[in-house]
Amino acid sequence: MKTIKVFFLVSFLFVMSLSSQNKASIKVVKNYKNWNWEEVYVAKNPYISVAVVPKAAGRILEYNLGDVPSLWINSKLMGKSFAPTDEVKMQEWRNFGGYRLVPLPIENCSVDKDGSKAQRWPPPAIIGDSPYKAKKGVDRKGNETIEVTSGIQELPVPSYNGKLKRFVYPNKIEEKLEYSRSLYIEPNSSLVHINHHLKNVGNKKVKRGIMISSQHVSRSNPNLTDGENYVAYVPFSKEYLLPNGKQYQVMSSPEARWRYINRNRFKLDKNNPEDVAKYYNHGTNWKGEVAPGIYEVEYDYNLMAGFHIVSSESWICYVNKTNNTAFAKIMEPYDSSLEYDHGLNMAIFCSGLETGYLETEVKTPLYTLQPLESFDYKEIHGAAKIQNTPVLGVTMAGITTQKLSCKNGQVLGSYGVFVASSAYLVSEDDKGVEIDRIFIEKVNPLQPFNVHVNYTKLFKTLKLVLIDENNKEYELDKFNK
């Protein structure tokens, strides 16, 4: 009897040991990576690390695949925190970098000298760059989570008037908002699940959304401005146009670009044809349609401008071409029946501040919230090594850079995967009945997945399927004959 008990105890401890090895862990780390913040919440598994800093406005300041970072961090603000006040001037934006938040619409978040609604830069600070509360939690499915909550953001915020040399204050506070975020990572994948929550904690009806954006690494070392190696891909469709009827819009003019470079970078000469050809334009980084329905933007340090578009398939993907690492976002589908700020769910911004960064911006719909009402918005981030660009598609399984094809018995495709799994080629007949299921190889986010399989049987459909350790099945790609 004792032998049986010991056997079961050893077996139980062995299973628990395997479970703990596979589980994504969350730790509160002091002075993580010498960032000089006392508390950093760090989630890790064998593929990714995610770090959240409560004192830095609860921002995610790290999302790495292996040792490759996706997020730019402002080294000048490491270890710093600021008093929760909205009495900030234009040059006092406490931009820690990483993954940040702005309430929408931004145009009516402040007041001008006449008391009329206006935009202010920097954006509202309580929700954007003041300390957050943080804790570890557990969701309904048992996932260990990192939870952050902002202070109460009162709107409109004061603005500083340079001519008057004083702050201009609103006559009354009209809105009170509270933002919170919950995230968890999966044990054996690069997927990060994020839930955003915005609550109206005031006593009046409000109409608000949020912009949630990642500031990405955009140079390979401090001495190089090699922005051509840092790009973003976004899908588009003629079904979804901007309110002005255009497919997309670059939010700058040749005059504005010329003026910015001339003032902030180096002197230009309009009598010099080379200067005019190179800089008197919207920018040469808006690369256009690089594959059917796929737009590419590369980073340009000499251009502070935004790119507006509707993401038709609800994803955007940032790629570091120096090491072929891709970081994708999957957001809620665009819903044309809802109202969006400026009519779009996606923007890309090239910033010339500090060392510069490419910013991918996700915009939620605008929701009318009664007092104590709230809305939730879900995002899923995934990272993978890829073989080549452009990015043609993103699903929960991974990233497609060469679509599945079959010609003369040769099945080809190229991918990055989000889930450590076994990859199979599945063939089906014209009734959807499975003919073959052929194991290809073990795959994971740290290795590109290139398909080259000989297959000569008759079929109607070929599928690439991933099966993880829990026998959960993901469809990566499909080819119809």
Question: Gist?
Answer:
This protein has 481 residues and is mainly beta. It contains 4 helices and 35 strands.
Please name the defining characteristics of this protein.
11-stranded antiparallel β-sheet; 35 strands; 481 residues; globular; mainly beta; 9% helix; 7-stranded antiparallel β-sheet
Question: What is the residue-averaged pLDDT?
Answer: 94
Radius of gyration: 24 Å
Structural class category? mainly beta
Principal-axis shape: globular
Indicate the percent of residues in helices: under 10%
How many strands, which pairing sense, and closed or not: the largest β-sheet?
11 strands, antiparallel
Query: How many β-strand runs?
Result: 35
User: How much strand?
Assistant: 35-45%
DSSP helix count? 4
Kindly report how far apart the N and C termini lie.
62 Å
Q: Catalogue the unreliable spans.
A: 1-22
Task: Please describe what this structure looks like.
It is a single chain. This protein has 481 residues and is mainly β. 9% of the residues lie in helices and 44% in strands. The protein has four helices and 35 strands. It has helices spanning 2-22, 125-128, 254-264, 273-279, and strands at residues 25-29, 40-44, 48-53, 59-65, 68-69, 99-104, 110-111, 117-118, 133-138, 144-149, 153-155, 159-161, 166-168, 175-185, 192-200, 206-216, 230-235, 248-250, 286-291, 294-298, 305-309, 315-320, 325-331, 346-351, 357-363, 367-369, 374-385, 393-394, 398-407, 410-417, 421-428, 434-443, 449-454, 461-467, 473-480. Strands 9, 10, 11, 14, 15, 17, 19, 20, 22, 23 and 27 form an eleven-stranded antiparallel beta sheet that branches. Strands 6, 16, 18, 21, 24, 25 and 26 form a seven-stranded antiparallel beta sheet that branches. It has a five-stranded antiparallel beta sheet with strand order 1-2-3-4-5, with no helix packed on it. A hairpin with a 5-residue loop joins strand 7 (110-111) and strand 8. The longest helix is centred in the N-terminal third of the chain and has 21 residues, at 2-22. It starts with a helix and ends with a strand. The model is unreliable at 1-22 (pLDDT under 50).
